[in-house]
Amino acid sequence: MIQPSPSPTPAATPEAPPTLWTPFTYSLFRAIWIASVVSNIGTWMQNVAGVWLVTTLTSSALLVALMQTATSLPAFLLSMPAGAIADLIDRRRLLLFTQGFMAVVALLLGILTLLGEISAFGVLAFTFLLGLGAAINAPVWQTVTIELVPRRVLGFAITLNGVSNNIARAIGPAVGGAIIAYYSPGWVFLVNAVSFLGTFGVIYAWKREAEVTSGPAENFMGALRAGMRYVQYSPAIYAVLVRTFAFAFGASAMWGLLSVVTARRLHLSSGTYGVLLSWLGAGAITGAFLMGRAGNRLTYNQRVLIGSAVFVGTNVALALVPSVYWLYPVMFVSGIAWLMTMTSFSTTVQLHVPKWVQARVVSMYMLVFQAGLSLGSIVWGELADRTTLETALLATAAWMLLSLLLALPFPMRSAEGLNLEPAEHWPTPRMGSNVDPDDGPVVVMIEYEVALADQPAFRVAAEQLTRLRLRDGSLRAGVFTDIAQPTRITEFFYVATWGEHERQHHRFTVEDKAIEARVRQFHAGPEPPRVTHFLAFPHSTNVEVPTSYETMEGPQ
């Protein structure tokens, strides 16, 4: 009997490409995004009220510009510790603490302002405290996004986070300016305090799954060093940080001196200042839609170049345009450029970093960004006081123009196709006795047999692997040739403790495994490369312990 042919297996339906709206299909992202819009509106109302209050309380352009510094300096001081903490403790609890802290600070500032007990320096002090809360909050807030959506839609989710801030920038300054005009900045501060409650509630209701960590737990200082080392030996991240600082340093003039341009060059009110910021926010929102439609037509490197070029024109316009009506479209285009540039920086960083170090690297990115804003605000504000406002803004435009040249030595690399999941392919070495995670130092040696003709190519591949060893925890690493047997090459890396070496096993990603495979393809021996682990002799630890010890049986 003829058997019927089996029905052909239907081909898998290709996954629809993500769009700007795809992240909203994830309910938790949607809830947190809506709460963040409300909170960001309060924050932008606060910013306008604070800057305008200081503008009316002092005649110093430097003090006004220092409002930007008071906001940014805490991030410069705390971003790295905050990133290490966010990678070590429960992120949900940390977010609850920071949201509550900022609500209390805003409430106290509002009460003191309504009572007439506040000075320009007092506003700066409270702004600094809010900045402390924001500095601790920011790294964990940014890294939470990757827990809410898949990697393939992360770029759009980050763009929507930028949209959230810019919707707030479009609404908050206008509402804040109206409240200032009819009532008092104190009421704006109180509204900001209330705006934190929505975010607090959503985070409180989030049932976040506990993370399962691999390998020995890190301590705070070790985590901090690991984050800095990761950036040092990651060219893609390093390039983003250099470009970020250059952009933030130049863009700080717009944020720090826009209120001075409005009040003293154009002789206009706080309402006009708020409207200018609203045009900026509207441009950023429009930029999100343009980026959603443009898709991948522009690389992140090209987006940053365009954004920096636009800010050259922004600063020239702020210095020379005689009418505020001409500044409205300038602010609109600047908003597009701001969102396009900042989301390019943020997305590039997050797509190039594995989860184990994500908050720390994001915190260093934010530190560099805030350092650029803080230092730039001081420099351009001081230059405006010593010369003229127009001179300071034109000097900023020149800086932004020169920063375009950084694209040559520091191009931003594509993260397309990177797989940063843990490879988990290294076998645990056999040990002759119990080894404590604090024992060390540890030396690992890997022996290869490489033909003389292959050694130039092997050396190039090995250099990349050496960088990975240093990035993931090694204090020293290198490759040596046996002078008696030139085809015998030994790779070594030196690690402070056994626990840190175990963490190296779990930090090695699938992407790194491909680099290791390129090195091993040159091995010509009959057996796989021989791996040997050495522990410091006599068997001692890097922490204070009783004097007795056990001796290792020998290298395994």
Characterise the protein shown here.
The chain is mostly helical. It folds into two domains: 22-207 and 220-407, MFS general substrate transporter like domains (Growth Hormone, Chain: A, Up-down Bundle), CATH 1.20.1250; 419-556, Alpha-Beta Plaits (2-Layer Sandwich), CATH 3.30.70.100. It has helices spanning 27-57, 61-88, 91-114, 120-148, 154-182, 185-205, 220-232, 235-265, 270-294, 300-320, 324-351, 358-386, 389-403, 455-471, 498-507, 510-520, and strands at residues 442-449, 476-481, 488-495, 530-535. The chain is elongated.
Task: Determine the number of helices (DSSP H or I, runs of at least 4 residues).
Answer: 16
Number of strands: 4
CATH topology name of the largest domain, in short, is Growth Hormone, Chain: A
Number of domains: 2
How much of the sequence is in beta strands? 5-15%
> In terms of structural class, how would the helical and strand content be classed?
mainly alpha
What is the architecture of the largest domain at the second tier of CATH?
Up-down Bundle
The largest sheet, given as strand count, sense and whether it forms a barrel, is: 4 strands, antiparallel
CATH superfamily of the largest domain: MFS general substrate transporter like domains
- Please identify the top-level CATH class of the largest domain: Mainly Alpha
Percent helix range: 55-70%
Mean pLDDT: 82
What are the segments in which pLDDT stays under 50 over at least 5 consecutive residues? 1-13, 542-556
Order of helices and strands: HHHHHHHHHHHHHEHEEHHE
Q: Calculate the terminal CA-CA distance, rounded to whole Å.
A: 63 Å
The coarse overall form would be elongated
Radius of gyration over C-alpha positions, nearest whole angstrom: 27 Å
